[in-house]
Amino acid sequence: MSSEEEAKVVVPRNFRLLEELERGEKGIGDGTVSYGMDDADDIYMQSWTGTILGPHNTAYEGKIFQLKLFCGKEYPESPPSVKFQTRINMACVNPETGVVEPSLFPMLANWRREYTMEDILVKLKKEMMTSHNRKLPQPPEGTEEARAADPKGPAKCCVM
Questions:
Q1: How far is residue 53's CA from residue 10's CA, in Å, rounded to a whole number?
Q2: Span of 26-35, 63-72, 74-83, 151-160 with lowest mean pLDDT
């Protein structure tokens, strides 16, 4: 098999998600982002949770942000929908729903198959450190219950 043919090999969705699950369970980098399955019985591996520890020297410092990621049947060809369960004030996040708006978050708007859920969480953490987000006043602690109890679950984002 030539190197050109090898480059065209596409890993099936479930294998890709199993790889991501294994990586998430091992822990990532400095431990300030993590992710895993939301429901161990979800045979389609669609529902995931993520956590971001607020970066130092920002308005997010000392806070733990919980997210829901939903990988539809088209993942990884299409990005997952991403929703903050913890209330957050951030330029790319809808303040009412917690949905990360693809049109305001370039990684989702310009999704590439090789991107992962880990990449999304790391990029969101970096986004917290940008000049236009780092000093934004944050909602008071304990205001995430309204979103966590949303029976509809994570909202599906628009077409990327």
A1: 33
A2: 151-160
CA distance 132 to 81: 23
Structure-token pair, residue 14: 């479930």
> What is the torsion angle, in degrees rounded to the nearest 10, for the CA atoms of residue 97, residue 58, residue 55 and residue 75?
30
Q: Is 80 exposed, middle or buried (0-12, 13-18, 19+ CB in 10 A)?
A: buried
Q: What gap in Å lies between CA 41 and CA 128, rounded to an integer?
A: 33
CA distance 63 to 86: 10
- Residues in Cβ contact with 98 at an 8 Å cutoff, skipping those fewer than 6 apart: 83, 84, 85, 86, 87, 88, 147
Whether pLDDT at 49 is above 60: yes
Residue 151 confidence (pLDDT) above 60: no
In terms of C-beta density within 10 A (0-12 exposed, 13-18 middle, 19 or more buried), how is residue 63 classed? middle
Q: What single-letter amino acid sits at 155?
A: A
Confidence band of 6 (pLDDT split at 50, 70, 90): low
126: left (phi over 0), alpha (psi -120 to 50) or beta: alpha
What is the rounded distance in angstroms from the CA atom of residue 136 to the CA atom of residue 158? 26
Counted residue by residue, the chain has a size of 160
